[in-house]
Design brief:
This protein is an alpha/beta fold and 114 residues long. Strand 2, helix 2 (32-51) and strand 3 (56-61) form a beta-alpha-beta unit. Helix content is 40%, strand content 25%. It is built from 4 helices and 5 strands, in the order βαβαβαββα. It starts with a strand and ends with a helix.
Amino acid sequence: MSAVIAYNEDNYSDFEGFEGLAVIRFYADWCTPCVQNFPVFERLAVHYAEVKPEIKFGKLNVDQSPILTLRYNVYGLPSTLIFKNGQIMQRIAGVKSLNEFKTILSQVLDESSD
């Protein structure tokens, strides 16, 4: 089973109402950087499933969820949003390495523990 849950406009309320830290990746199948970099995002989710299983990871196809894409002002792909209790804590634009993702998520975790 993947550590990354697929969301769309029908099931997004499960993600949106999540109490705690949640990370979602906005992507499209036609977006080459999205497809090439997705294994990095998945490794991030697997890593945190082991060390911080309370963090939820998801992905959202912008072509299948245009309303959510507009709601969160996602204009470039891939875009990753980090939420805490339904509020955006961080926006990550573009392709990132595993270490860059870990650094950003660690900073958000530090900020949210204050």
